[in-house]
Design goal:
270 residues, mainly beta, seven-stranded mixed β-sheet, seven-stranded antiparallel β-sheet, 2 helices, globular
Length: 270
């Protein structure tokens, strides 16, 4: 699995029921294969992205092997109480990552969230990501980097500098809802998710994460704009400090608790 969670996903499998539908996922794969190229050498056109969004908008949980009646409340620990990866109690419920298909050009995957679980603030360098909430409610907070780049000294002498970003998304997505798209430099490329209810999200990432190609996932902590002083000439163009934050790079969070799920939806013919 070439993704930002390599090494964090346990090998416990979560079975998902099979679906009698076979056309939607195959059609999705075929359209991705036609649209995307390895390493994003030829970026997809707006028309091609819109076609994918239209198809994703029609996909239901049953189309990928999820039964809506099985969407129980596997309650998590909440934003400020996530268990550490190496200290997890047996009753703690992780986020489940399901690898549907992966190749050099794109990744199709599913995330199943228990209530209050969190995927922390992270980026998608040089990538386009399409996300479809399949069921439940998910809070999304997303930033784009401010250009030209604005940097400030961090809190401590041994910490990395912080970089200015602008808030682009801060809302709850509740199924059924339309597909969201983020691009390499706009649309909320740095984002985090918090599950309001048990929920699932279908993602297409193109090109996929690949550290050797410079597409390494980096995690961040966001600080209010007022946390750092700015020099003369660095005033905000719109003057609204609430729309801006300073992002500090951090290591992979210890409390990102995930497990690998087994895809049991329709077989994709490659």
């Amino acid at each position: 699995m070439v993704c930002m969670y390599r090494g964090l996903v346990t090998m416990t499998k979560k079975a998902f029921p099979s679906s009698s539908s076979s056309s939607s996922v195959q059609e999705l794969y075929d359209l991705c294969k036609k649209t995307f190229t390895p390493s994003g050498t030829s970026p997809a056109s707006p028309h091609a992205i819109q076609k994918l969004c239209s198809l994703l908008d029609t996909i239901r949980p049953a189309d990928i092997g999820l039964k809506e009646e099985d969407q129980g409340d596997d309650r998590g620990h909440g934003l400020f109480g996530l268990p550490r990866f190496n200290r997890v109690g047996r009753w703690a419920q992780p986020i489940t990552y399901v690898d549907v298909h992966e190749c050099d050009s794109f990744t199709i995957c599913i995330f199943c969230f228990p209530t209050s679980s969190v995927i922390p603030l992270h980026d998608h360098p040089g990538m386009t990501v399409l996300s479809k909430v399949l069921y439940g409610s998910l809070h999304v907070k997303a930033y784009d980097w401010v250009e030209p780049e604005k940097m400030q000294r961090s809190m401590g002498p041994n910490d990395s500098p912080v970089r200015l970003a602008k808030l682009t998304v801060d809302k709850v997505l509740t199924a059924p809802c339309g597909t969201s798209v983020l691009y390499p430099s706009r649309g909320g490329n740095v984002h985090c998710f918090t599950a309001i209810t048990p929920c699932a999200m279908l993602d297409i990432l193109t090109p996929p994460y690949q550290e050797a190609a410079g597409r390494k996932c980096t995690y961040y902590h966001d600080y209010p704009y007022s946390s750092f002083t700015t020099g003369k000439g660095d005033e905000l163009n719109d003057g609204n400090e609430e729309d801006y934050a300073w992002l500090a790079q951090i290591g992979t969070p210890d409390d990102l608790y995930m497990r690998s799920g087994e895809y049991q939806g329709p077989v994709i013919k490659v």
